[in-house]
Structure formats: C-alpha cells, structure tokens
Amino acid sequence: MTNERRVLVSADSDALAASIAARFLTKTVDLLDETEFVNIVLEGGRVAMKVLESINSSPARDSVDWSRVHFWWGDERWVPADDAERNDGKARRALLDHIDIPAENVHSYPASDSGMTLDEAALAYAQTLADHSNGDAGLPRFDITFLGVGPDGHTASLFPDRQEVLEREATVVAVRNSPKPPAERLTLTRHAINSSHRIWVEISGADKAAVLGLALAGAAYTEVPIAGIKGRKRTVFFVDRAAASEVPENLIAPTY
Ligand SMILES: O=C1O[C@H](COP(=O)(O)O)[C@@H](O)[C@H](O)[C@H]1O
Fold it and tell me: For the Glucosamine/galactosamine-6-phosphate isomerase domain, which residue ranges apply (predicted)?
C-alpha cells in the first residue's frame, strides 16, 4: 500500500457524493471485519452533507454495525447547540439521527451555550480524544478522516497564514477571528489530522480548482493548509470535474 496522494474524479457533485458514499460503506464494513471499533472524522462542508445523505439513502447503509463506529469532527463552529450552522447538527440530520448508533459513539464538540469558554471547550474535546486514545498518545486511531477545502485552501478550521496551522503540541485549538464566519471555531490541529490512517478530501466546484492545483503542486502549507495534510496510509482527493481542471494529468487515477 502506498501513502502517495491520489485524485479520483467524478463527473459532478452528485456523482462525487454517490461515489464517496459507496466507498465509505464498503471500506467501513471491511475495517469492521479487521478491528473492533472504527473511528471516523467528519467535516461540515456541502459535499460532506451530500455524502452523508447518500449513505443514509443507500440500501447498504444497514450492512454497517454502527454500534462499533465512533464519529468525531475535524472542526466545529462556536455557536449554540441548536444553531443550524453547527457541523454536528447538519451531520445528525443527514445521517446520524437515522442510524442505530449509541449516543456515546457520537463525539460532538461542546457548544457556545455549554457554559464553557472557547478555550475550555478546546481542552475538553482534547480530553475526550485522549480518553479514547488507541493510536498516538492523546488520539484515537482515526481510520477515515473526511476533510473539505475552502477556495482559500483552508481545511477543517485551519486557515492560511494563521498561528493555528503551526501548532505542534495541542490536538485541538480555538480559532478566533476566522476569515470565514462564524468568527469563533474549534479545530483539530494538523498533526492530529495527519495521524489519520486514511484522509479522504471532498472537493466540488470550479472555485476550488486553483487551490487544489496549488496544493498538489506542493504549495507551502502555511499559505495553503490543505497542502500540508497527508494520511499515514492513504490520502485521496475525491473531486468533481469542475474542481479537477488544474490537477496535473499524471496525478489523476484512471477510472475503470
Ligand atoms: O467552514 C467550513 O468549511 C469547510 C469547507 O466547506 P465547503 O462547504 O466549502 O465544502 C468545511 O470542511 C468545514 O468543516 C467547515 O467548518
């Protein structure tokens, strides 16, 4: 197995979501044949929600023993628990509320109305991660980590030219004055993300083509955070044709 980056191209965002959903279901069943629990990291982007909806509507959905799956989030918006902008709320509505999964397997970040400060919430999520550590010290073994990418190259809530991208110790940090609203957020750090066995990046749309091209051409990760992301076993960029227009031909995996 190689840990080189691969790019898989689908015709459009619907085909992209269906393809990721099908691969996720197959891979999760396979992983559960090999291991007792699987840890999945979710993201909050638009493609991600289509993927979760596609998993939910798949006839293969119930082939997964969801009681042995744990869900985490790469980042979260610091808003009240019932705010429509919360990444966990979107994922619950798209999939998690519809599957037979124990509540304790769904690891949401604290919300802004939890009584914690933003910094306390970052520490609390880091502690929850550490309590489930079976990979690196302080982290669960992330089997599959989903990530989105903004047109500026941000991933999770790691934005360009910001100190959070350089964090080397903490697994979770608070983000203030985010260039994308809401201004306050919580995010896994780069080294926490890169501890993942598999990273599946989900990208749709022409507005992300330039930054994807830059990332794959080796841009500095401080300027293009997604460029610094690499899983231990595999990093796959699942993209649609519109987003793939600046991907070097030799990086595109053949489709059969
Ligand atoms: O704000 C966020 O944006 C990114 C990308 O979202 P997209 O809709 O442009 O794909 C997302 O991955 C992240 O989780 C979210 O908090």
Answer: 12-235
Ligand 1 lining (C-beta closer than 6 Å)? 43-47, 74-75, 87, 148, 150, 157, 180
Q: How far does the centroid of ligand 1 lie from the alpha carbon of residue 33, in Å?
A: 31
- Cα(36) to centroid of ligand 1, in Å? 30
- What is the ipTM for the molecules in this complex? 0.94
Per-residue pLDDT, averaged over 7-36, amounts to: 98
CA torsion, ordered 237, 241, 242, 246, to nearest 10 deg? 70
What is the residue range of 94's domain? 5-249
Domain count, the chain: 1
d(CA 224, CA 219): 6
162: CATH: 3.40.50.1360
